[in-house]
Design a protein that fits this description.
Blueprint: H1 5-20, E1 24-25, H2 27-36, H3 41-48, H4 53-70, E2 92-93, H5 95-106, H6 118-126, H7 131-139, H8 144-156
Parallel strand pairs: 1-2
Helix pairs in contact: 1-2, 2-4, 2-6, 3-8, 4-7, 5-6, 6-8
Amino acid sequence: MSTDVRSILVRAARDEARRDGSRTIEAEHVLLALAGMRESSAAQLLTEEGLSEEAIRTALNREWEQSLAVAGIAVRMGLLPEATPDRGHDPHIGESTKLLLKRAMDAPPKLGPGRIGPMRILVGLLDTDRGRVARTLDAAGVDRATLHTKAREALASGNR
């Protein structure tokens, strides 16, 4: 098994995308993958903020309901069938994941060659006020700015 964090994240995020029935690995799948890496400092920071995997899934469902309500569609998650995972399809990296990885690479301290760790990915994930992850964290009642600051401070102190 590879110990390269990017490989682990891509594999875990890909599994989340499959579970979600998605053809692309998007930022929300990466967030779930990070939360699932329980031994990482990024997952521990998420947990401290009340963002366990289950809490994130609940908030994602709430965000989805709220987004549909804006369009005039009323749904309740418990009333809809679960997504059908497409086990024969290998989801590819979506645009939101490409953007978060770029933001992660650009986050100080600047990286030389090497691996990207979970905390750097979390910083890249939180470095936006737009998109499904931002709306999900809002739905969960999380102070995104504070969480982003904590993640950047952890990264600056050497937590990769």
